[in-house]
């Protein structure tokens, strides 16, 4: 049985797994799943992942969830180049540090901007209070500042002179608010130069392929069925509590 990856490229973690597998010439069956259509709650997918989130991997009888775990599994199984997850103790520690930090920082803040700026007002027709939007932008800016000053500093990439899993995970998260029309690179020459290096290391064609859906989100939401957002209603309501 061929390796299967269950992905929705609107999802940042899915994009990182997709890019990693493609860049490393790992053969897989792309099982497209639509989160907005609620396909993660289907009976068949429940057999793949009880967590009911994407990305998910199936390799024969072995199933795995969570993007970081999946990429590490792929790196080990397919012996990908060392720079992705360096053997060097301190370089690997830098990668692990970023991967540990990002979940409750840039990932959370970028996702919030995407929802507040695009999904909620454009799809659900709910106006976002100005103070809520400003607070979310402040959080995002704080995380972006840490990416530059703490994680990049004066290095070309997070772990050193070559791209790593840390940079891959970072770029897909930072591109999420861009899809909502927030140019996070404006006025940030260091971050912009890093993005260009990451894009070059990945390859522009693959980079653009993986991000075409999120960068077209402002157009695609115009024809989106607002009823599909009802699955997210409890989470949305908590934003205003």
UniProtKB/TrEMBL annotation:
Pfam families given in the database record: GST_C, GST_N
Assigned GO CC terms: cytoplasm
Molecular function GO terms recorded: glutathione transferase activity
Domain annotation GST C-terminal: ranges: 88-224
Keyword Transferase: yes
Subcellular location: Cytoplasm
Keywords for the protein's UniProt record, in alphabetical order: Cytoplasm, Transferase
Record bears the keyword DNA damage: no
SUPFAM superfamilies: GST C-terminal domain-like, Thioredoxin-like
Gene Ontology BP, a term: glutathione metabolic process
Catalytic activity annotation: RX + glutathione = an S-substituted glutathione + a halide anion + H(+)
Family statement drawn from the similarity comment of this UniProt entry: Belongs to the GST superfamily. Theta family.
Subunit description: Homodimer.
Protein name, entry field: glutathione transferase
Organism: Maylandia zebra (zebra mbuna)
């Amino acid at each position: 049985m061929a390796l299967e990856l269950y992905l929705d490229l609107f999802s940042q973690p899915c994009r990182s797994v997709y890019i990693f597998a493609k860049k490393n010439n790992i053969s897989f069956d792309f099982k497209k799943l639509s989160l907005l259509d609620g396909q993660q709650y289907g009976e068949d997918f429940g057999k793949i992942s009880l967590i009911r989130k994407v990305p998910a991997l199936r390799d024969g009888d072995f199933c795995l969830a969570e993007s970081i775990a999946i990429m590490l599994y792929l790196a080990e199984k397919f012996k990908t180049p060392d720079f992705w997850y360096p053997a060097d103790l301190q370089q690997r520690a830098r990668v692990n540090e970023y991967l540990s930090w990002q979940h409750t920082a840039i990932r959370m803040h970028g996702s919030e901007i995407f929802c507040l700026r695009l999904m909620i007002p454009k799809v659900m027709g709910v106006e976002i209070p100005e103070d809520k939007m400003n607070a979310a932008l402040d959080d995002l800016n704080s995380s972006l500042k840490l990416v530059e000053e703490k994680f990049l500093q004066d290095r070309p990439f997070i772990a050193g002179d070559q791209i790593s899993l840390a940079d891959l995970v970072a770029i897909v998260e930072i591109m999420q608010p861009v899809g909502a029309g927030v140019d996070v690179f404006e006025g940030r020459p260091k971050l912009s130069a890093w993005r260009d290096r990451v894009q070059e290391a990945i390859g522009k064609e693959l980079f653009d392929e993986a991000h075409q859906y999120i960068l077209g989100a402002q157009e695609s939401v115009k024809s989106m069925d607002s009823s599909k957002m009802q699955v997210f209603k409890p989470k949305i309501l908590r934003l205003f509590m």
